[in-house]
Design brief:
Blueprint (H helix, E strand, L loop, with lengths): L9 E4 L12 E11 L4 E8 L5 E7 L5 E5 L15 H10 L13
Parallel strand pairs: 1-2
Antiparallel strand pairs: 2-3, 3-4, 4-5
Length: 108
């Protein structure tokens, strides 16, 4: 298992059920990436971090490499270079979280 720094605790592969806000700490890698007409790319995975932040891992059409989208990211897209794997794109995006949001909350 990759080290997601406690932000992701479970990885689902080939799951057909979409994630909900209660699926905290879960990365769902889609069995078949789906096209996003709005952003003109494909979504390969989605995740909720342990502190409830939602993100998507995407791939541009006809270009190699994965990147992440999320509300906390500058311009809502990861600024890191494109990555060879979904997991690497998630790890890079998590490293871009603001300092106050890096640790998962333990409050109930």
């Amino acid at each position: 298992m990759n080290d997601f720094g406690g932000h992701i605790t479970k990885v689902l592969r080939d799951s057909t059920a979409p994630l909900s806000e209660t699926d905290v700490g879960v990365l769902r890698i889609l069995p078949s990436p789906r096209f996003c007409a709005y952003n003109r790319d494909v979504i390969a995975a989605e995740y909720y971090t342990a502190d409830g932040r939602y993100g998507q891992v995407c791939k541009e059409l006809r270009l190699p490499g994965y990147y992440s989208r999320g509300e906390w990211l500058t311009g809502k897209v990861s600024m890191s270079p494109r990555h060879n794997t979904v997991e690497a794109a998630v790890i890079a995006a998590l490293a871009e979280q603001p300092a106050g949001k890096r640790k998962a909350s333990t409050d109930g």
